[in-house]
């Protein structure tokens, strides 16, 4: 359930990860508290289909860029450690997995027009391969859209780095004290 398959325009399947819980709705143990806390917000974060309607919380429908970049980094690190330890087969297995995830970043998350990677929204349960559609990329600007650039596998492409740096400067995410999480002041911790 934590893995989903997205089929690109060329018919290739890409396996990516998502956060998954048995319920795709607000937390039942704190629903009333969360609903009251969010009732006054006009802007919300990345996890709602119809902001600010808290009942449209759909975390399991989001295939997040940051989760997948963290997993990619771990796959690369594991491959490196296994190679150092002399486990060539294990290392090769993780290199293969990481290369597949890298291809998925290009096919599913990358948005050349915006110069950044964007979360992908599922419109099915995720149990069957879903065909990639441009409109399923969530175009909101968040700092995590740029997370892949800090992995050496991405920063070796000078044209890509140039596009990403330009996009990072454009939406004014860079602030005097660092990088803003988003351009929306939702007053939420998440």
Automatic annotation (TrEMBL):
Q: Write down the PANTHER family for this protein, in alphabetical order.
A: TREHALASE
Where does this protein come from, organism-wise?
Brassica napus (Rape)
EC number(s) from the headed UniProt entry: 3.2.1.28
Q: Which UniProt keywords apply?
A: Glycosidase, Hydrolase
Protein family (similarity comment): Belongs to the glycosyl hydrolase 37 family.
Q: What is this protein called?
A: Trehalase
Q: Which reaction does it catalyse?
A: alpha,alpha-trehalose + H2O = alpha-D-glucose + beta-D-glucose
